[in-house]
Amino acid sequence: MSGGVDSAVAAARAVEAGHDVVGVHLALSRMPGTIRTGSRGCCTIEDAMDARRAANLLGIPFYVWDLSERFTEDVVDDFIAEYAAGRTPNPCMRCNEKIKFAALLDKATALGFDAVATGHYATLIPGAHGPELHRASAWAKDQSYVLGVLTERQLAHCYFPLGDTPSKQLIRAEAAERGLQVAQKPDSHDICFIPDGDTRGWLSDHVDRSPGDILDETGAVVGSHDGAHGYTVGQRRGLQLGRPAPDGKPRYVLSIRPVSNQVVVGPKERLEISRIAGGRFSWAGEPGFDPAEPFTCDVQIRAHADPVPALARLAAIHDDERTELHRADATHEVVVDIDLEHAEPLVGVAPGQTAVLYVGTRVLGQFTIDRAVPLEAAATRS
């Protein structure tokens, strides 16, 4: 129970369904903020108090479990390491993978509980090989993307009571009818451990800042930076380039080279990506087919992005395609080619992002993007 309206209503529905429910709030910081500011931040003392009030109203036991050390190691430290390596990570994915459905689930099952219920908008459907994770009935609120890291074992111990609810407005109305004080509480946004939203400033305090060169695609130096971690693929503003482009058009960050500490910029059209590939993949249950054979699917690279049709396969990493962003021990990767007959190229793809694969409404699995091939380069190779 995060202290928000979704988890409060999820708990209420679990109680109403006849389950033996215990409310748990996760303390993810040893020094939590005392109050929230609108939708900024989460896991504050105020959130814990809101969760406790909801549990008291529902008449269920309530506990605060301190997972702050695990959260720091598995989410915050990983976030810092990924940025230092030139990646753009998604800490919410790591939190679901390592904390909510790993550390929390392991502790819950060890204590004899059957499942962890959350307020995520997603649906579990029995399949031929076990539970399948599907989109929520309302795609506008669907959160299956951030659950794409879950495995078959974890899905077998998950419960998502809100998956069939078509809108957040109905959840708020239900909360008000139940007398829950969080009925109109704003949703949390931004990274929970950077509540002011200033990711670049926060990283400056946690990642070594080493000045380096900003290059164009020819390798010519067109500017300098005071820390590559402060840039992300697709960025246009704040580059402060000393040399304008020959055509006078704006330039965008195309890639970050962590080993040489260089930032590469170029024209907007070079951000158009027709192939992505990466490792650290996992399947959300048995696929039901051999993923080494090409298969059609949809791919989604951000929580609120539209899925695009694609052709994917699991393949060995060729040495000539290995980049400095590949992990040294990685031998295979998921390769995804965008179906350009039915979709536009992806734009602004950053290594470190999570790509989630769907077959229809079902979440098939996910991988971390290690390389993104521009449209022109992919056409030349093929």
Question: How would you characterize the overall build of this protein?
Answer:
With 382 residues, the protein is α+β, with helices and mostly antiparallel strands. The longest helix is centred in the first third of the chain and has 20 residues, at 91-110. It has helices spanning 5-16, 45-58, 68-84, 91-110, 152-155, 168-177, 199-204, 375-381; strands at 23-27, 62-66, 116-117, 122-127, 130-135, 158-159, 212-215, 221-225, 252-257, 262-266, 272-283, 295-300, 308-316, 332-338, 346-347, 354-359, 362-374.
* Spans of at least 5 consecutive residues with low confidence: none
* Mean pLDDT across all amino acids: 90
CATH architecture of the largest domain: 3-Layer(aba) Sandwich
Task: Report the radius of gyration as a whole number of Å.
Answer: 22 Å
Neighbour order of strands in the largest sheet? 11-14-13-12-16-17
CATH class of the largest domain: Alpha Beta
How many individual domains?
3
In the CATH hierarchy, the third-tier topology of the largest domain is known as Rossmann fold
Number of strands: 17
SSE order, as H and E? Answer: HEHEHHEEEHEHHEEEEEEEEEEEH
SSE blueprint:
Elements lengths: L4 H12 L6 E5 L17 H14 L3 E5 L1 H17 L6 H20 L5 E2 L4 E6 L2 E6 L16 H4 L2 E2 L8 H10 L21 H6 L7 E4 L5 E5 L26 E6 L4 E5 L5 E12 L11 E6 L7 E9 L15 E7 L7 E2 L6 E6 L2 E13 H7 L1
Parallel strand pairs: 1-2, 3-6, 7-10
Antiparallel strand pairs: 4-5, 7-8, 9-10, 11-14, 11-15, 11-17, 12-13, 12-16, 13-14, 16-17
Helix pairs in contact: 1-2, 1-6, 3-4
